[in-house]
């Protein structure tokens, strides 16, 4: 279970993003103006052309500035009515049918049911709503133009800009309503679907030396738990399938009834405070990475047990106000064994809290056994002791300026711990799961708005089928934006498209260089040109994948409001120029002139 | 265009479509089973062909609405969809996202429920590759069982796939019984009520459950007319008996002796005998591993009869062939074997085909009146020799004679006692540190082993038994050292030491002084 790349803070992000946006949009706008001017000169001559061009630009600016909210609202209303007439409710019906039969596709025995449920539902919602946005946005204008019903609108005092914006807003409103309905249905489905309880199998209970009982629960929802019950009759069902239950004893006459509570730790929105990470290698030298144990994924660096290898996380903002109950440190460690060791036991390690400016001031190590692929929460009280038994205050001694260092070492020689910057964090608090789900749906909503804008814009100058294909291609490119970036920047193993084609045909390994020669030179030159061109246009493709926060929700982490704000501004950055382009293209068509 | 002509053309098209529908209907007519007051029908050509090949969906296994819905929803693009899902599964495995990996596997098999290789590979991947990624043995066991259950699910969809049942049997027996964590896995497996359901406790051994699955696969081939493809029959049929052998071995390792162990080994001996007597259909023809001695006798009889037709002919032909060789080679062949160098031995191997006198050579060089009889004897001798080679080859593949001997030996009271005494000695030494009891048990155990090895000398060659005994002998030596006593020479199991003790490294030469 890992946190994906941290989202940027809005304050740090906006200035750079705005500058980049202005550069791209400015360059694009300038290119369009120059091409428009040349086109006007070619069509109308050197005198009339520029005059007509200036008139067009002036009128366009006027249209954009003098848009009437009332008229935009009217067009929006028409778009909504049109959508309702086109049976968009069918999409909701399809969704409900999918929910009804979701049990067919969801394995109750999976090790992370919440993740599976949330991924399935949000992916399904996303596909349906994006499909709805695509179909609604691309068919509307071309149909109006083909049926000539557009004349009933353009003969009214409505500006083309209002036509485009009204449609974008109208279809987005329909999508929003649909998302809201599917979101509520999904929430209810997830909460009800994952809610369960067990019974303690009384026959399985075995008494320990101290009067504690151990046993197991009944099999429900495809799993059962080991239970530990204290002498007072209360206890807990251990973690299975990423959740646990509390157990309380009720005395009914002479009989003890154990009641198992609802699942806990399943639908969470953990708010992590991530720190900076440095490693020491086996000789104690400090670096940003540690050893590589040969795993295909290079997400983690690995420290060797029984050596000076360690991972040192430095966290800021550690104050008594923020953490009045002590410091909650959550670990998500990887474990790698170079020898079998004792297979019945986990790998031992220790955590040491230190003052980052004076590492001599350190709490006594807390030894622990690493739990791989699980979040392991360790709580440090405010009052600590050193290895010599002297008392320490968590905040005054270890974090006098709000910074604290958490050092992790593996204690067993020949065994390794793997860590990445986001694997260890301070679990500041838990946010509301419902709120987190709402934020994940906002991500899908932003994707839907971008697609609606693209669809409406393409439909201003293309027929419906071509506009649909174009929008669909942009959706695919938008979701594959990360890969396209990698191709454009030559970060993909195996080279550019032509080099990859040669490797495919000749079955050459992607990691070995091609034989030098004319064909290789031609292929690589072509790829360089292609990648240059791709770099030039890649910024025009909206990055739809980055807007989705489903992974963060499914993995049980809070989606920061800051990140949502970044994505909303980013979406506005995409939609605004797309709308302007749509307006200009429609205005250029005689139908709306 | 004349509207009348257009109308006529449409009519012609309609008639053509109707005519073409007739053969289509005849070809595609579905089969219909007989019912009350209704006769059954074998259906059209396609239905009959499907039935003959056992390819109809209902013949393959259960019909699953999830699978059918997904196949329908992909509108014939399920190959593309499956490819995308495979890519997703590889990415999930690379990123160690196990829940996504497992969910993606389910989607792939929903799309292609009758693609046996997918079920086999994925069951294997979950049980072997994914399980070892987890550090806690309980998690590892969870994923091994997940892999096994995946295979069982595959069997539900493909009830006539012997290899899938074999795969499930293999994972249950070998993964649980041979992993580094086998002691823990076997315990968890025994205690796994959810997996076993109503299966009684004594049957909850992974080797016995694996054997059940192997036998199910064999039953499909033997009794239900399913062809065995993609698996060596000798390996396929040997597994039930091997599972029984490993079961007997495992329970003794865990300290179960007496009647239970005796019965387990007796059953193993019976299973091995039944395996030897099984008719195996191979590309070289049908064989039975027990027939080795029979064919050895038959071959010797025919070869002897051929030889007796003209007793000195073979030697003459050999001489004649040798005489055709260059002088150096002739001298090499006629020399005393002890003088051969390595190069000369290689040369002799090269010369062997040139000087070998075949049965055919002998038959063709007999006097004319004996030649027909000679040819018949030569042909028979050659056939029996080929059969003998084939049987011998397959017997070696499965170590037939060794296991036969072992099964027989292990049912002897001396062997059972030997294993019990060594086990009790180990417990006394390792668990309780009681050296006197350990020594007493070890010495009694060695004496019992001596009796067994004298009766079954082939067992001395067994690497597993040898390694186990070496470990015990090592402990015995430690006990003697602590008692300040020297290791007895010759040791009572000296032949075991000689066979299995690794040779000592050559001593470093002592550097000469100045």
Question: How is the secondary structure organized here?
Answer:
The complex is a heterodimer of chains A (593) and B (514).
Chain A: H1 10-65, H2 69-85, H3 89-100, H4 102-105, H5 113-146, H6 150-154, H7 160-194, E1 206-207, E2 213-216, E3 226-229, E4 235-240, E5 243-252, E6 255-260, E7 270-274, E8 276-280, E9 286-287, E10 301-304, E11 310-315, E12 327-331, E13 334-337, E14 348-354, E15 366-369, E16 376-380, E17 383-385, E18 391-393, H8 394-398, E19 404-410, E20 415-419, E21 424-430, H9 433-459, H10 464-479, H11 481-488, H12 497-506, H13 518-537, H14 544-547, H15 550-554, H16 561-588
Antiparallel strand pairs in A: 1-2, 2-3, 3-4, 4-5, 5-6, 7-21, 8-9, 8-11, 10-20, 11-19, 12-16, 12-21, 13-20, 14-15, 14-19, 17-18
Helix pairs in contact in A: 1-16, 2-7, 3-5, 3-7, 5-7, 5-9, 5-10, 7-9, 7-16, 9-10, 9-16, 11-13, 12-13
Chain B: H1 3-28, H2 45-53, H3 57-60, H4 65-73, H5 78-94, H6 98-111, H7 116-130, H8 137-157, H9 162-178, H10 182-191, H11 193-196, H12 206-223, H13 233-253, H14 258-277, E1 280-282, E2 285-287, H15 292-309, H16 313-323, H17 327-334, H18 342-355, H19 359-364, H20 371-397, H21 400-410, H22 413-431, H23 435-455, H24 463-482, H25 494-500
């Amino acid at each position: 279970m890992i946190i994906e790349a941290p989202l940027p803070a809005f304050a740090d992000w906006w200035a750079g993003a705005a500058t980049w946006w202005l550069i791209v949009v400015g360059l694009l706008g300038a290119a369009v103006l120059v091409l428009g001017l040349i086109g006007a000169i070619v069509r109308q001559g050197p005198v009339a052309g520029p005059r007509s061009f200036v008139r067009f630009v002036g009128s366009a600016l006027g249209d954009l500035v003098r848009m009437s909210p009332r008229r935009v609202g009217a067009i929006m209303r028409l778009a909504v009515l049109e959508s309702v007439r086109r049976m968009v409710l069918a999409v909701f019906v399809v969704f409900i049918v999918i929910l009804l039969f979701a049990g067919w596709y969801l394995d109750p025995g999976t090790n992370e049911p919440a993740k599976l449920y949330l991924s399935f539902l949000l992916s399904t919602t996303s596909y349906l709503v994006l499909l709805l946005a695509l179909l609604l946005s691309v068919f509307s204008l071309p149909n109006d133009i083909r049926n000539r019903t557009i004349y009933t609108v353009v003969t009214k005092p409505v500006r083309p800009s209002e036509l485009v914006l009204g449609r974008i807003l109208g279809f987005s409103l329909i999508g929003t309503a649909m998302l809201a309905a599917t979101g509520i249905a999904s929430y209810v489905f997830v909460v009800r679907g994952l809610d369960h309880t067990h019974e303690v199998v009384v026959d399985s209970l075995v008494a320990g030396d101290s009067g504690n009982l151990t046993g197991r629960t009944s099999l429900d929802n495809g799993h059962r738990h080991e239970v530990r019950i204290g002498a007072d009759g209360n206890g807990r069902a251990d973690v299975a399938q990423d959740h646990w239950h509390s157990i309380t004893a009720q005395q009914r006459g002479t009989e003890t009834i154990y009641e198992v509570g609802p699942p806990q730790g399943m639908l969470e929105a953990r708010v992590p405070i991530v720190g900076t990470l440095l490693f020491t290698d086996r000789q104690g030298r400090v670096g940003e990475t540690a050893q590589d144990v040969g795993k295909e994924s290079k997400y983690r660096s690995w420290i060797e047990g029984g050596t000076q290898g360690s991972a040192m996380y430095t966290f800021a903002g550690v104050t008594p106000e923020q953490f009045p109950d002590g410091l909650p440190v959550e670990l998500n460690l990887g474990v790698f064994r170079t020898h079998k060791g004792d297979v019945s036991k986990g790998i031992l390690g220790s955590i040491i809290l230190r003052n980052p400016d004076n590492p001599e001031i350190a709490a006594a190590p807390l030894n622990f056994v690493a739990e791989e692929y699980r979040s392991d929460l360790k709580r440090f009280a405010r009052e600590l002791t050193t290895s010599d038994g002297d008392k320490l205050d968590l905040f005054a001694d270890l974090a006098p300026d709000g910074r604290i260092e958490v050092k992790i070492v593996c204690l067993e020689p020949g065994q390794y711990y793997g860590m990445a910057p986001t694997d260890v964090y301070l679990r500041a608090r838990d946010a509301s799961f419902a709120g987190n789900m709402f934020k994940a749906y906002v991500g899908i909503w932003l994707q839907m708005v971008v697609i609606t804008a693209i669809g409406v814009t393409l439909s201003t100058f293309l027929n419906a089928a071509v506009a649909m294909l174009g929008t669909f291609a942009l959706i695919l490119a938008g979701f594959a934006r990360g890969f396209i970036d990698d191709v454009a920047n030559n970060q993909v193993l195996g080279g550019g498209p032509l080099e990859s084609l040669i490797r495919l045909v000749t079955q050459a390994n992607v990691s070995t260089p091609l034989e030098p020669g004319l064909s290789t030179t031609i292929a690589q030159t072509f790829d360089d040109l292609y990648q240059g061109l791709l770099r030039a246009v890649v910024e025009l493709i909206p990055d739809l994948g980055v807007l989705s926060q489903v992974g963060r929700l499914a993995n049980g982490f809070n989606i920061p409001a800051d990140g949502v704000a970044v994505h909303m501004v980013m979406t506005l950055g995409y939609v605004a120029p797309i709308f302007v382009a749509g307006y200009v293209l429609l205005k250029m068509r005689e139908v709306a002139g | 265009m004349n509207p009348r002509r257009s109308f006529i053309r449409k009519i012609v098209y309609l008639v053509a479509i109707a005519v073409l529908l007739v053969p289509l209907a005849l070809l595609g007519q579905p089969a219909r089973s007989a019912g009350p007051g209704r006769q059954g029908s074998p259906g059209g050509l396609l239905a009959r062909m499907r039935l003959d090949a056992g390819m109809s969906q209902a013949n393959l296994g259960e019909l699953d609405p999830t699978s059918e819905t997904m196949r329908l929803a992909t509108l014939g693009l399920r190959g593309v969809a499956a490819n995308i899902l495979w890519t997703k599964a590889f990415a999930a495995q690379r990123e160690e996202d196990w829940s996504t990996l497992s969910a993606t596997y389910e989607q792939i098999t929903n799309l292609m429920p009758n693609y046996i290789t997918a079920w086999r590979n994925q069951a294997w991947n979950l049980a072997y590759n994914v399980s070892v990624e987890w550090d806690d043995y309980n998690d590892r066991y969870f994923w091994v069982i997940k892999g096994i259950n995946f295979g069982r699910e595959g069997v539900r969809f493909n009830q006539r796939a012997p290899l899938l049942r074999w795969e499930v049997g293999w994972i249950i027996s070998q993964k649980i019984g041979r992993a580094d964590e086998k002691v823990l896995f076997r315990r968890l497996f025994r205690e796994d009520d959810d997996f076993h359901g109503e299966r009684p406790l004594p049957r909850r051994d992974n080797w016995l459950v694996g054997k059940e699955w192997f036998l199910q696969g064999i039953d499909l081939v033997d009794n239900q007319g399913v062809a065995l493809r993609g698996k060596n029959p000798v390996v396929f049929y040997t597994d039930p008996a091997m599972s029984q052998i490993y079961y007997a071995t495992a329970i003794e390792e865990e300290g179960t002796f007496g009647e239970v162990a005796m019965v387990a080994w007796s059953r193993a001996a019976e299973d091995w005998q039944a395996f030897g007597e099984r008719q195996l259909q191979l590309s070289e023809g049908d064989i039975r591993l027990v027939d080795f001695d029979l064919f050895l006798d038959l071959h010797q009889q025919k070869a002897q009869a051929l030889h007796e037709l003209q007793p000195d002919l073979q030697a003459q032909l050999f001489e004649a062939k040798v005489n055709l060789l260059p002088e150096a080679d002739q001298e090499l062949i006629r020399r005393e074997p002890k003088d051969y160098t390595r190069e000369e031995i290689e040369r002799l191997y090269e010369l062997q085909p040139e000087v070998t006198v075949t049965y055919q050579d002998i038959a063709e060089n007999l006097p004319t009146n004996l030649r027909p009889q000679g040819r018949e004897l030569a042909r028979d001798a050659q056939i029996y020799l080929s059969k003998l080679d084939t049987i011998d080859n397959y017997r070696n593949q499965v170590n037939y004679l060794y296991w036969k001997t072992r099964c027989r030996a292990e049912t002897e009271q001396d062997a059972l006692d030997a294993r019990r005494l060594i086990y009790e000695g180990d417990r006394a030494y390792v668990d309780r540190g009681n050296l006197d009891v350990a020594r007493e048990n070890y010495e009694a155990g060695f004496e019992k082993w001596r009796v067994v090895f004298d009766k079954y000398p082939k067992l001395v060659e067994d690497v597993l038994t040898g390694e186990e005994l070496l470990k015990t002998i090592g402990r015995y030596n430690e006990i003697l050292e602590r008692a300040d006593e020297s290791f007895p020479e010759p040791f009572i199991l000296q032949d075991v030491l000689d066979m299995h003790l690794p040779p000592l490294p050559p001593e470093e030469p002592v550097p000469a002084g100045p």
